[in-house]
Design brief:
By secondary structure, the chain is of the alpha/beta class. It folds into 2 domains: 150 residues, NAD(P)-binding Rossmann-like Domain (Rossmann fold, 3-Layer(aba) Sandwich); 171 residues, N-(1-d-carboxylethyl)-l-norvaline Dehydrogenase, domain 2 (Orthogonal Bundle). Helix content is 46%, strand content 14%. Strand 6, helix 3 and strand 7 form a beta-alpha-beta unit. 35% of the residues are buried.
Length: 326
């Protein structure tokens, strides 16, 4: 296995000292060969490529990798967001495998990663078949975390994608991660954003699936009254995360969503813009619009650019959009 990263300082640190992975799995140092993309010819032709870049970098990464692939190379989208259309457009549907990683992690500094609470991965062929290459990928990924094959990987990815509408809301306020949606209005806004995205998936006849962060049927019935009835995150995943945070030996650096990490800690563009672009593209196909998600993402972009701050009042502005959509 070879790691590829464009950040030269990160690559040098890994090759000199190994990759340090800390967090809920303890502290581990892994020896792995790592290169920058300009050295891809050293490992070509590529066999299987797991793509784990930010959504906004997917197109450029695939274009670069394509030159070093063959017709037998498979490309795995191991990302947040909705990136499968980009994969299909560049490398083709037949060479694409969908991946749905249900765990978090961040790059803390060169050569050092922080792994969030342990969880599983879903992988699947886009036509639903269980193939030899899928089984081989499952065996390899099982070395890191439990990995399962699914005949509905697009439904799993869509469900994770839709859940992103809720997670984005946490980037609007300076409240702690577990408190961002505590006010009733915040919960109603997050639910409205999720339901808006769900309507797009329903119109596309996507079979959504529940997982330990999200149950689509819960959102269809939510009335804003009870935080725990809104999301599996509050009822299941967050308490589990808190166990690792409070009782483990590792002092977590990242205490929020990946959007918040990018904006506050890395001071860089989050995936919010890519999220909205993908959602809008899908909505356009079925004649729908997504004004609530658009308003949320617009605010996040303004926060990223420094013209807006994280504060509860942002929810008041989005609430006006929600009211107009009723």
């Amino acid at each position: 296995m070879t790691f590829i990263d464009h950040w030269g300082e990160h690559v040098s640190a890994i090759n000199l000292h190994g990759l340090c992975v800390e967090g809920s799995r303890g502290s581990n140092r892994i020896t792995v060969f790592t290169i920058t993309p300009d050295r891809l010819d050293e490992i070509a032709p590529l066999d299987a490529v797991i793509v784990a870049v930010k959504s906004q970098d997917t197109h450029a990464a695939l274009e670069q990798l394509l030159s070093y692939s063959t017709e037998q190379t498979c490309f795995v989208s191991m990302q947040a967001g909705m990136n499968l259309p980009t994969f299909e457009g560049i490398v083709g549907r037949e060479r694409t495998i969908g991946g749905d990683p249900n765990y978090g992690g961040v790059v803390v500094e060169p050569g050092r990663l922080e792994a969030g609470f342990p969880n599983y991965i879903l992988i699947g062929e886009l036509d639903g078949r269980y193939t030899d290459r899928l089984r081989s990928l499952q065996r390899d990924l099982n070395q890191w975390t439990p990995t399962y094959m699914t005949a509905n990987v697009e439904g799993a990815i869509w469900s994770k994608f839709i859940y992103g509408s809720e997670i984005q809301c946490a980037a609007l306020t300076d409240r702690a991660r577990g408190e961002a949606l505590r006010p009733r209005r915040h919960r109603l806004i997050a639910t409205a954003a999720v339901l808006e995205a769900m309507r797009v998936a329903d119109a596309l006849h996507v079979e959504l699936v529940s997982f330990d962060f999200f149950d689509p049927e819960v959102y269809r019935l939510f009335d804003g009254a009870d935080l725990k009835s809104m999301s599996f995150w509050a009822d299941r995943a967050w308490p589990r995360h808190e166990v690792f945070r409070k009782h483990g030996t590792h002092q977590f650096v990242n205490m929020g969503s990946i959007w918040r990490w990018d904006i506050v800690n890395q001071r860089r563009e989050s995936e919010a813009g890519s999220y909205l672009k993908a959602l809008r593209a899908a909505a356009t196909r079925v004649g729908l619009d997504v004004p609530i998600n658009a308003a949320i993402v617009q605010m996040i972009r303004e926060i990223e650019s420094g013209v807006r701050t994280m504060r509860d009042q942002n929810f008041d502005e989005v609430w006006e959009v929600v009211q107009k959509c009723q």
